[in-house]
Specification:
The structure is a homodimer of 240-residue chains.
Chain A (H helix, E strand, L loop, with lengths): L8 E15 L2 E9 L5 E2 L3 E5 L4 H13 L5 E8 L7 H5 L1 H9 L5 H7 L4 E8 L13 E8 L10 H19 L9 E2 L1 H12 L5 H10 L3 E6 L10 E5 L2
Parallel strand pairs in A: 1-6
Antiparallel strand pairs in A: 1-2, 1-4, 2-3, 2-7, 5-6, 8-10, 9-10
The structure holds a DNA duplex (30 and 30 nucleotides).
DNA sequence: AAATCAATGTCTATTTTTTAGACAATAATT
DNA sequence: AATTATTGTCTAAAAAATAGACATTGATTT
């Protein structure tokens, strides 16, 4: 039995996750789609148990909604405008209600969802190849979207992504978190393309390589023979 | 009538403020003292009305508890450990209850206060000379303490101050917020002493002056004749 | 009134870091 | 063997940060 009861949660406080991935030189965000007549795109989010830390709640929610676990996850901002209400859901409450009853949503839970919520934003970085997002209970699908061309998101979720991207940019250098987006081994060019995707601007190859190597966090491995008509690049591994 | 009713607020969500001031070359924090047998030192905090933005709540709470308004105030971290309960208050609940009834605290309000709370931390910078902290309803006094020698604070409020100081240090340069701590006009030495108090380390006078002036946010005014046996320094005013 | 003192304002030299330019090395193709 | 497209690395130039030096100045002392 999987009954949802709002009484188990802290009231009117939620968590939403912005999950960044990287593939084909593009920075992506993972967006579940809620199946309704008019489909809703909403960040993976959820609620906090009465006796659960918010960091734990964020990890659990992410796991429940997408199957992703054991990754870099950080609180970055609280969104708490006075009228922060899920209007898109309210407009489709009847249909959503039917939908949800299949997963044992109680009557008062429905009403509860149309309350005003303060939401804590977390952001996460994952290697898309290492992760196989599953479809959450109330979702039709989960998809990676280029951060530059997201679908219309509900409520202030667009703003939440924007602010998460700002935070990512501020922290990429300082905290060396970027390597979370890459596979186990990678070439220097791939690191550079990642940085260029995040900052949406080009870097000079020679100086970029020097800067990254001077961090002393990469181990140089064997060369990677791509079959291309040029010198083979080294592979690297992140050491932390 | 000033009746406190927990039903008016978002449940189990609070706001606490770390208010930095600067005086006599020391970085200070404003700490109210709650009058009980064993006095409790607690950051000025409070709760969020059901239809009030969190930023507004922070400003209102600060005003109610200390009389301070119209200042730089910024959200910096959420504190949400699973067992975040005001034990110090619980231990003195009987005495506190009596105390509070004088200001019309309802019965269920008392119990409510001993719940687990998630707290949003805000920090603020004020010119101590411009501000005259009043004593809040439930406080015995409010005092400025050197950030390096605070009294024992309740719960995780010590940690909250620490994290606020980290944030202040990260933002001082970038956001030019330091001048909020100084009076209308000030000398370059005063700016330097402020920076030294915040970072707890010395700066080279010649280069510090160059760096600050190169920001192009200061207007140079007349000289300040102190009566000391040396060249009189210029006064400056912050332009933003 | 001249010498002294303590702190200020500013300049220059030095060092370090960042940025730009250049070129040899190399793996596959022609 | 020559060509091609990248890669790895070196050096020069520019910019920024740091350190050292000194003349200025307002009051005090002699």
């Amino acid at each position: 039995m999987n009954s949802f009861n709002s009484k188990n949660y802290l009231q009117q406080l939620s968590i939403d996750c912005v999950i960044f991935g990287y593939k084909e030189a593009e920075l992506k965000v993972l967006i579940p789609k809620i199946l309704l007549k008019k489909p809703l795109y909403s960040l993976p989010g959820g609620f906090i148990y009465l006796d659960e830390s918010i960091d734990n709640a964020a990890m659990r929610i992410l796991e429940e909604r997408t199957g992703i676990n054991d990754i870099y996850l950080e609180q970055y901002h609280v969104f708490g405008k006075e009228n922060r209400i899920n209007k898109d859901l309210l407009d489709n409450m009847e249909e959503f209600s039917k939908q949800m009853n299949q997963i044992e949503l109680e009557e008062n839970g429905i009403n509860w969802l149309s309350n005003r919520f303060v939401s804590i934003g977390y952001y996460a970085l994952v290697d898309i190849n290492k992760v196989n997002p599953k479809i959450g209970k109330m979702d039709e699908s989960v998809e990676w979207y280029n951060v530059k061309s997201l679908p219309q998101l509900i409520m202030d979720h667009g703003e939440m992504v924007e602010k998460a991207l700002e935070t990512l940019r501020r922290n990429l250098d300082e905290k060396l978190i970027g390597f979370n987006l890459l596979p186990e081994t990678f070439t220097m060019r791939e690191v550079q393309e990642l940085y260029e995707a995040v900052y949406d601007k080009p870097f000079a190859r020679n100086n970029f390589q020097k800067k990254i190597l001077d961090l002393n966090v990469l181990e140089r491995l064997e060369k990677k023979f791509t079959g291309a008509a040029n010198k083979a690049p080294y592979l690297y591994r992140f050491l932390m």
